[in-house]
Amino acid sequence: MPSSPLELLAVRTDQEAGELEVHLGGGDVRTVGRTPLGEGLLGATRAALEAWHRRPGAPARSIGWARTVESAPDARVVVAVALEDAGHITVAHGIGEGTNAFEAAARATVDALSR
């Protein structure tokens, strides 16, 4: 596993291209994952995992599930995810908060990957 702490650098939507981008960083490594916009929470989680898998030495992970835990009136969203470790029965859970569901799902994925 990469030794630098993983962090969410950006979550961007490109309406023209119909894509969601998740940018991850850690140390000198910056990676980007993309997914179609219409895939919701799973799409944001998938984009974050794609960026993760592009990091040198990153172990394989797959999505177990992603769910909205809370949507606050002030537009804050809380999302929880479960990531599975390929080849093992291990599951890592993460929770993240953001100004929208995409950001919250990406933050929850980074939280789970950091465990």
Descriptive tags:
single chain, 115 residues, alpha+beta, Double Stranded RNA Binding Domain, three-stranded antiparallel sheet, 6 strands, 23% helix
CATH superfamily: Alpha-isopropylmalate synthase LeuA, regulatory domain
CATH domain class: Alpha Beta
Number of domains: 1
Provide a count of the helices.
Answer: 2
Helix content: 10-25%
Beta-strand fraction estimate: over 45%
Structural class computed from helices and strand pairing: alpha+beta
- Oligomeric organization of the protein chains: single chain
The stretches of 5 or more residues where confidence is low (pLDDT under 50) are none
At CATH's second level, what is the architecture? 2-Layer Sandwich
For the largest beta-sheet, the strand count, sense and barrel status come to: 3 strands, antiparallel
Q: How many strand segments?
A: 6
* Main sheet strand line-up: 1-2-3
CATH topology: Double Stranded RNA Binding Domain
Q: Please state the CA-atom Rg, rounded to the nearest Å.
A: 13 Å
Q: Please tell me what the overall shape is.
A: globular
Mean pLDDT: 92
Helix/strand order, N-terminal first: EEEHEEEH
